[in-house]
């Protein structure tokens, strides 16, 4: 429980939240980033039902309409428990440009109340400058580790490297996405890639077997949507 795909406890990143969804017949856990006092940035597949297959096939893995906002709660407790402070969803927004998991995997959740400044300071999305190959980033999330075991808290992995920038990653990675180095497991979806200044440059969309080859939605592609 000391690692998430090689990571360490992410106590410092208080603007990264555990995002839980519970509906009548299903539930899920994801990660999200606070980017305004009442606004979370996450992955669209965390807020919308998909085709029912965990395997993502670009062009075929379509996402539906979002679940109701009332289905979502979030906490930034480093080790969530029954006494953790929670914040409730009030609205869910998704891009109106496409429905494929590949290329359109971002969403915004407005919260019913502001997260107090003494609980979390929002992260800044780096919407003005694209990532570059070789650029260093940190991954943060609440997912399982590479053995499939829960980490029971927020974990981080530092000194990772951007493998390729949007538009140059080849098949299976869209022009609105980039590929990272490693470390992304189930439950880390929607979590951030943070640059050296702590700004959000990407949102976890998907990864390969064994928590490998993570693909991120780049925030620059969603400049207008985020604003």
- What's the gyration radius in Å? 16 Å
Along the chain, the helix and strand elements come as: EEEEEEEEEEEEEH
Q: Quick one: how many beta strands?
A: 13
Helix content: under 10%
The biggest beta sheet reads: 7 strands, antiparallel
The parts where pLDDT drops under 50 for at least 5 residues are: none
The assigned structural class equals mainly beta
Q: How much of the residues is beta strand, in percent? A: 25-35%
Number of helices, where a helix is a run of at least 4 consecutive DSSP H or I residues: 1
Mean pLDDT: 90
What does this structure look like?
It is a single chain. The chain is mainly β and about 230 residues long. It has one helix and 13 strands, in the order E-E-E-E-E-E-E-E-E-E-E-E-E-H. The chain has one helix at about 225; strands at about 10, 15-20, 25-35, 40, 70-75, 85-95, 105-110, 135-140, 155-160, 175-180, 190-195, 200-210, 210-220. The strands form two sheets. A seven-stranded antiparallel sheet has the order 1-9-8-11-12-13-10, with no helix packed on it. The chain has a six-stranded antiparallel beta barrel with strand order 2-3-4-7-6-5. The longest helix has 4 residues, at about 225.
């Amino acid at each position: 429980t000391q690692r998430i795909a090689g990571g360490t406890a992410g106590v410092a990143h208080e603007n990264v939240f555990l995002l839980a969804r519970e509906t009548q017949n299903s539930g899920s856990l994801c990660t999200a980033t606070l980017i305004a006092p009442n606004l979370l940035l996450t992955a669209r597949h965390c807020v919308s039902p998909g085709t029912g297959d965990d395997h993502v096939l670009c062009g075929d893995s379509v996402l539906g309409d979002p679940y109701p906002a009332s289905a979502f709660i979030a906490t930034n407790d480093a080790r969530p428990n029954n006494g953790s402070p929670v914040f409730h969803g009030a609205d869910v927004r998704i891009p109106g440009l496409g429905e494929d998991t590949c290329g359109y995997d971002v969403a915004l959740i407005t919260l019913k109340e502001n997260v107090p400044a003494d609980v979390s300071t929002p992260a800044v999305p780096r919407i003005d400058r694209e990532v570059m190959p070789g650029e260093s980033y940190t991954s943060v999330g609440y997912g399982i580790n590479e053995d499939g075991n829960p980490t029971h808290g927020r974990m981080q992995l530092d000194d990772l490297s951007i493998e390729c920038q949007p538009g140059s990653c080849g098949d299976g990675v869209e022009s609105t996405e980039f590929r990272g180095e490693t470390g992304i497991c189930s439950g880390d979806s929607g979590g951030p890639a943070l640059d050296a200044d702590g700004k959000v440059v990407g949102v976890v969309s998907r990864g390969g077997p064994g928590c490998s080859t993570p693909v991120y939605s780049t925030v620059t592609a969603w400049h207008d949507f985020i604003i």
